[in-house]
UniProtKB/TrEMBL annotation:
<dbReference type="InterPro" id="IPR024983">
    <property type="entry name" value="CHAT_dom"/>
</dbReference>
<protein>
    <recommendedName>
        <fullName>CHAT domain-containing protein</fullName>
    </recommendedName>
</protein>
<feature type="domain" description="CHAT">
    <location>
        <begin position="64"/>
        <end position="335"/>
    </location>
</feature>
<dbReference type="Pfam" id="PF12770">
    <property type="entry name" value="CHAT"/>
</dbReference>
Length: 679
């Protein structure tokens, strides 16, 4: 960036408006000398609060913007401002902070400032935002994913429709790149306590409100109004914000619909309260925003945010997208960005792999398919945090073993447990862990020329060999070197036959001879323990300084006696109790096949997450998210079809419904083909 400028309006404080001469404008560049002059004349009776009315034309907004720009920059600061602006380019823009200290001036639409035939706040060479002249230090960098909590206040029907459209746009923008963002939705919280609990549970980086807003009765200050489907309406005011929750999000977005004649000061009210409470930035709207514009804003803003762009660039991109809408309503000037820290420090979230590695991941299956993995926000959080909680809390206890099980309420074969496991694996990888995914549903390959064990009824030794062979495959995202299992192979060759455990020849790495285990030879249990010990040593050595997460999918393909016997005692139980300490184990299976193998005495050491069918009440929301992931906004015909299906379906529907329907919905099929995804 070429420069950073601060424009600060100081002067008369209080509830009433002073004379223009009571206010001064201060301009400093890059922390240098501060120039000052009096604020120019502003006719407060010209109707600034109506410039965003539906019947207001561009001329009214342009006149208002010219008045504001002349008052701020038309006096003694004009020459300095012109020099500053003249040195700015699209490639090297100037960042400008407008700090409006007098509360009575904050409600003016400064975003409409018009100079020399241009809207200043929509110029690519200027990144203008509101904020404080003094910036606070950014918090420590945290590993991703970015956590987002969307709070929906359930207002009137048309506003609820807006919320669903905006939510779908956010899902498409944020979740199309799997595991980089975790998004949860809180629908119509019944009370401030319910909202507080949700914030403290997720500890979101971003808190996004879609609610109704209005002036407080008899006071005029703004409030967010929530109308839960059950219970009494309640409101959140600026006074409530400091004690709202123990956790303070870094970015707050307030999309609060309200009357266009509402005189409440949102910029200096609720938005400023969140900033004072510890948020790094707040985005709010100056007036009502139509549903199509809200979708454009959220889609563009969050798409840029998902690319790790600074928040002011995200807002600037959203303004530009709004300005390109066919009807000129000044909607591009509605967003107000208020900051107290540098824009690139608002969300200090990072990922361990480099950006090019992330791009390569999303080109390969099965992770590329995760863009269509919708829903399951609570199960995602539970599974992810069971193995690697992103923050310390009394309720967060890392488990070394996690069981992801599936049970369909409608008798369907698929429940999405494999997709959940893949999403978690990718999440852990982005957090710096070594991940290995093993699919036990396939036919086990021959080891040393011995025939494989078929698709089902695999014994414990076949499972160990499949883990080794798949873990060292180049198809893995993080393949383990083959020589990591050299000592294991050497000891295995001896112990399966009944030989004593001896030190292998380190100068001649051995391969598995593929023999079956001889249960008739002496010390069978001791030899099995030796094989598992050597196997765990190999995993521990492969992990090194990293945490190694090993996922075993389709464990229902294991013989029940082997799963509950040798594999439980030799692999699951030791890992559950931290031996070896760097290894984590994820077991993915049908509920009815895995539960009998688990022991109640170890339940406190094993995390459990179960997935099933989707509730039919979620169908339209999930369908919108699915469409958005494909880059398609569903039209009325598709929505009517889904609505008809929803009305005739039972309480639940199968998780693969959208994939089943894709070939029969032309818009979905076309979008899926364009993305090159499997159907």
């Amino acid at each position: 960036m070429a420069s950073k400028a601060v424009l600060r309006i100081a002067g008369s404080f209080g509830s009433g408006r002073g004379r223009e001469s009571d206010y001064t404008v201060h301009l400093s560049v890059d922390g240098g000398h501060e120039s000052r002059c009096s604020l120019g004349s502003i006719d407060f009776d010209r109707g600034f609060d109506t410039v965003f009315d539906r019947d207001a034309d561009e001329g009214i907004r342009r006149d208002a913007g010219e008045v504001l720009c002349r008052a701020l920059l038309g006096g003694g600061l004009a020459a300095q401002w012109d020099r500053l602006r003249g040195g700015a380019t699209r490639q090297d823009p100037v960042r400008v902070v407008l700090d409006v200290e007098p509360s009575e001036l904050r409600g003016l639409p400064w975003e409409l400032m018009w100079q020399h035939g241009w809207w200043l706040w929509n110029r690519p060479e200027l990144l203008i935002r509101r904020g404080t002249a003094r910036t606070v230090e950014a918090g420590p960098t945290e590993l991703g994913p970015l956590r987002v909590l969307v709070v929906i206040g359930t207002p009137a029907h048309d506003e609820e429709f807006l919320a669903e459209q905006e939510l779908a746009a956010m899902s498409g923008a944020l979740e199309s790149a799997p595991a980089r963002v975790h998004l949860e939705v809180l629908d119509d919280p019944a009370s401030a306590a319910a909202l507080s609990d949700a914030i403290d549970r997720l500890r979101p980086h971003i808190l996004h409100f879609i609610a109704h807003g209005m002036p407080r009765p008899g006071i005029g200050g703004p409030e967010l109004v929530f109308t839960p489907t059950s219970g009494e309406p309640w409101s959140l005011t600026a006074d409530d914000v400091p004690a709202l929750a123990n956790h303070q999000p870094r970015l707050v977005v307030l999309n609060a619909c309200r009357s266009a004649a509402d005189p409440a000061d949102w910029v200096g009210g609720v938005a400023r309260a969140f900033l004072d409470a510890g948020a790094g930035a707040v985005v709010s709207m100056q007036a009502d925003i139509e549903s199509d514009a809200a979708v454009v804003f959220s889609d563009t803003f969050y798409a840029r945010l998902a690319e790790s762009s600074p928040v002011d660039m995200c807002v600037a991109a959203a303004r530009a997208a709004l300005a390109r809408m066919p009807v000129r309503t000044g909607v591009w000037a509605l967003p107000v960005l208020l900051t107290c820290c540098e824009p690139d420090a608002v969300l200090p979230v990072a990922f361990r792999p480099a950006a090019d590695v992330l791009r390569d991941i999303l080109r390969s299956r099965p992770y590329a398919e995760l863009r269509r993995f919708v829903g399951r926000s609570e199960e995602r959080r539970q599974a992810w945090w069971a193995v690697d909680a992103p923050h310390a809390s009394p309720a967060a206890m890392d488990r070394s073993v996690l069981v992801i099980s599936g049970h369909s309420q409608t008798g369907h074969h698929r429940t999405g447990k494999t997709w959940l496991a893949h999403w978690c694996l990718l999440t852990w990888f982005l957090r710096g862990h070594h991940i290995v995914s093993v699919d036990l549903a396939g036919r086990s390959g021959p080891a040393g020329g011995r025939p494989g064990g078929g698709v089902r009824n695999k014994d414990w030794l076949t499972v160990l060999r499949m883990i080794r062979d798949q873990a060292t495959s180049p198809d893995q995202l993080c393949p383990i070197p083959k020589d990591a299992f050299a000592k294991f192979n050497a000891e295995l060759n001896q112990l399966v036959l009944g030989s004593a455990r001896t030190a292998p020849n380190e100068h001649r790495p051995e391969v598995d001879e593929g023999r079956g285990f001889n249960d008739e030879a002496a010390r069978a249990d001791e030899r099995k323990a030796g094989i598992f010990s050597a196997f765990l040593d190999a995993l521990s050595g492969a992990a090194g300084a990293q945490r190694l997460v090993l996922a075993l999918d389709h464990t229902e393909c294991i013989m029940p006696d082997s799963l509950a016997g040798e594999l439980y005692e030799g692999l699951i139980q030791p890992v559950a109790y931290g031996k070896p300490p760097a290894v984590r184990l994820v077991i993915v299976a049908r509920e009815e096949s895995v539960s009998p193998a688990l022991r109640e005495s170890d339940a406190h050491m094993i995390g459990r997450v179960q997935v099933g069918d989707f509730r039919t009440s979620e169908l339209i929301r999930l369908a919108r998210a699915y469409s958005s992931r494909l880059g398609y906004v569903p039209d009325e015909k598709v929505l009517n079809f889904l609505q008809s299906y929803q009305e005739t379906a039972g309480e639940f529907f199968a998780v693969d419904l959208f994939h089943t329907l894709t070939p029969h919905v032309p818009q979905w099929l076309e979008a899926a083909n364009a993305l090159g995804v499997r159907r």
